[in-house]
Amino acid sequence: MAKTYNIEPVKAALQTAKQVLVLLPQNPNVDSVAAALALYLALVKKGLSTTIGCSSQMTVQFNRLFGVDKIKPRIGNQNLVISFSYPEDSLEKVAYDKDPANQKFHLTIEPKAGMQPLDASQVEYSYTGSNADVIFVIGSRTLEDLGELYQQEKALLDNKGKTLVNLSTLDKNSQFGTVNLYDPTASGCSEIMATVIKALELALEPDMATNLLAGIEAATQNLTQAGSADTFEAVVELIRLGGQRNHLTTTPAWTRPTPNPSTPLGTSGTQPDWLKPKVFTGSGSQI
């Protein structure tokens, strides 16, 4: 019998949601990122305004997952944050005043006597403060696992009036969601997500299915540690939907050696220098 989860409250919340967040813990694994990206892509396909965030930078292990470039370190867009580097205890005061006639706001940063003034070229601007209606947290034990994202959006994430979906397989999960899609018997988040996306009646296209297959493969050591028939059933369904196996481990076509028609038989058609050891420098040249 296929697994079922408490999806109805999530489905109802999405029907009226104006903003949706999909959040990952700091230093996430491939399974969590793959599951989150599949959900993000499905929600965007549905036409929902959706943001996906993670406080950790995405490393090379994730670079072939579809949509990975959409993951942001900051998720809000309501509050303007002005940041700059300045020695500690070197500011005399920070003040502001309003100019209603010209609709201007002035922020004045005054250094202490003898200190250098702030270099305007070093000022950075960013945003925080999301007003999302539905928040999915993928692969976390607690909200604190979100790291800086939790600190930036604590008021939002602690707001009990929001629909907060906790999707995880991790032990010692604190059940922090208003909806907890917690299943320690599943191979990982991607296996749960395959069922959830279908239950939410969202489109599950080939790119999304490929992400979920990659997540399941990562969580099960390429299915060698799959513990139940549910995992294999999910894999079969994702392949039928157009998902590609071994997407993260298959060598991209542009990195493969180009066959040389003049190469003698018995050498696999590779260029003679392809098999020689190479050292790649930081500039991209090879030695």
UniProtKB/TrEMBL annotation:
Superkingdom to which the source organism belongs: Bacteria
Record Gene3D superfamilies: inorganic pyrophosphatase (n-terminal core)
Entries under InterPro entries matching the protein: DHH_sf, Oligoribo/pAp-PDE_c-di-AMP_PDE
Region annotation (Disordered) ranges: 248-287
Protein name stated in the entry: DDH domain-containing protein
Lineage of origin: Bacteria, Candidatus Beckwithiibacteriota
